[in-house]
Amino acid sequence: MYDKNVRKYLGRKGKKNKGIAETLENNPHLFGIYNNGITIVAEKISKSSNNIDWTLSEPYIVNGCQTTRTIWDVLEPKLNAGETGTNPKIEDYKKKLKDGVVVTKIVVAPDEVLLTNTTNFTNSQNAISNKDFIALNKNFQEWGRIMAKKYNVFMEIQRGSWQAYKNSSEYRLERNKFNDGKSIVAAVDLLKVYGAGWLGKSGTAYAKTPPFAPGGTIYEDLMAEGNGFNVEDLWAAYRLMVESAKFFSKEARAGEGKAISRGKTRYLYYTIFMKLLVPAFRSVGITTPKHKDLTKLIIKMLEPNCRHLFDNFQNSAINMLDKYFTKTESNDMTIYKEDVFKRTGDLNGALKTDLAVITDKPTAFNKLLNVYETVISGAIGGANYTEQLTNIIREFETEEE
Q1: Does pLDDT of 289 surpass 70?
Q2: Do 1 and 60 contact (CB within 8 A), yes or no?
Q3: What is the pLDDT of residues 106-117, one digit of tens each?
C-alpha cells in the first residue's frame, strides 16, 4: 500500500506525527479540518452493484502514509482494548469520532508517469526534503535490491524503510543479513562520499546535501543518461566509507587536541585517498582517470591479495589529513596557509570549500598532496605501492582489449 510513497511510517516521535496523534486523541471530530488528508492512486476505479461502494484496482497511498498509520496506532488500541461493559469515556469518544473524516483524493493513474508525477507534486511540501525523492528513481530502486541481495547492505532509499523492514516477518527470518543494522546506509550519504572522493567535492559534501539529492546539480549530472554511474560506484563508495570509519569514530577522535574535530574532515579524507591513486594512472599515460576506473580500482584493492595496498594508501591519506591540520611555524603546507582560511580565520568555513578543485593557483593542499604522492610512489620497505597499482591498471586495460 505504501510502496509508491517517498517514505515509510516514521513513528510518533516526529513533530508532525505527534500533532496528528494529538488531534485524534483530543479532537477526533475536527480531524478533517486540521489534517491535509491523503492521496490514493489506482489503475482503475469502479462502482459496485449496490451503487454505494467503490472498488479500486492496484491502490497505493502516495501521500498520507504518516496520517493513515498514525490513525491506526491511535485507534486500534483505543477501540479494540478488549474491555467488557460500557466505558462512558470511550462511548463519548466514539460519538466524536463519528463526526471525524479523512479527506481523500483518489487519482486514476493508469501509467507510471502520472503515478510518479502525482507522488511528486502531492509531496512537494516543507515536510518532504529533496533527498526523499530518491525513492522514486527506478535506478535506485533496482540498485537498492542489488545492494541487499549481492552485498548484504541495506541501502535506504525510502526514509523509514529500515524500520519498516525490521517490523516485517522477513526481518525475523534473516535478521543477520544486514549485520544487525550495522550494514545500513542512506543512499544520499553514499552519493556524498562519491562526490567527495571521485569528484573532489569535499567542501560541497560537508556543507550541504541538496546538490546530491534529486534536482541538485551533482545528482542530476550523475543520473544523466550516458554517464554510466551504477551500483558498483555505490558499492565502492560504501566500502571506502566503512573502511575509513575507524579513523573517525568517537574513540579515534577522543582527546585529539586539534583545532577542529577529525570527524568534520572525513569528506576531505575521501578526496585525499582518491587523489593519491591518480599517479598510478599517470604511469600508463592516463592524466585524468575515468570515474569508472577509480571504482574498479577500489574494488580490486579490497580483494584479499591486494588488501595491503588499500591499507597503505589509507594510512598515507590519514597521515596527510592530519599533517594538513597541524599548525607549526615550519609547516607551510597546512590549511592555515590557505587563502580561504586567511581571509576569515574560520576553519569550518574553509572545510566547506572544494580545496582539491582549486587549480588556478598554487594551494597548500596541492603542495602537500604532491609530497605524499612522491612518498607513496617511492620504495618503502622494498615496495613501491604506486607501481603495484599501475600493474593492476595494466591488467584492466588488457581485460578490456
Answers
A1: yes
A2: yes
A3: 999 888 888 787
The C-alpha cell that represents 25 in the structure block = 486523541
For residue 104, which of 52, 56, 54, 63 has the smallest C-alpha distance?
Answer: 63
282: cell is 599517470
* Confidence band of 392 (pLDDT split at 50, 70, 90): confident
Residue 381 to residues 308, 311, 346, 349, 376, Cα–Cα distance (Å): 13, 15, 40, 39, 11
pLDDT digits (tens, 9 = 90+) for 170-183: 887 777 788 877 89
- Average pLDDT (32-36) is 88
Domain ranges for the chain, please list them.
Answer: 15-128, 132-400
Long-range CB pairs of 296-301 (<8 Å, 24+ gap) are 296/232, 296/396, 297/389, 297/392, 297/393, 297/396, 298/236, 298/239, 298/240, 299/232, 299/235, 299/236, 299/239, 300/392, 300/396, 301/389, 301/392
CA dihedral 73, 78, 79, 80 (to 10 degrees): 80
Element (H, E) at 60: strand 60-63
- Cα atoms found within 13 Å of the Cα of residue 281, Cβ hemisphere only: 17
DSSP assignment string, 92-108: HHHHHHHT----EEEEE
CA 65 remoteness from chain centre:
21
**159: which strand partners?**
7
Q: How far is CA 397 from the centre of its chain?
A: 32
